[in-house]
Amino acid sequence: GLQITWEAEIRKVVLQTDSSTTLKLIETATPHHSHYTSVTEIRRWLRRDWQVQIHHVFREANVVADHLANSGHALPVGLHRVIAPDSTLAYWLYHDCIGVQTPRSIPV
Length: 108
Description:
Number of strands: 2
Strand order of the largest sheet: 1-2
Protein name: RNase H type-1 domain-containing protein
Pfam families: RVT_3 (PF13456)
Strand content: 5-15%
Structural class: alpha+beta
Distance between the termini: 35 Å
Number of domains: 2
Largest sheet: 2 strands, parallel
GO molecular function: nucleic acid binding; RNA-DNA hybrid ribonuclease activity
Helix content: 40-55%
């Protein structure tokens, strides 16, 4: 995502993730961590001459991203671009645009 954004010459970016673990890894991963190579690549992109803010959001705050992540599990590893959203993605995009909030369920 960072590479695509850079190549599109977008220089002000707000990146949202529902993974607080990922945020911590970007900040603190050491060379001994199993994902250190990926984290190093992310850090390299973040050091470029642009403004990137990274925020933690709950999964329910970005249903579109959650849908894309879940549907991506069925795809081969690599870059995949969505040219036209399927009906489910279109539904969530519409709800995102009009500001529909999805309630957060917490098991007790």
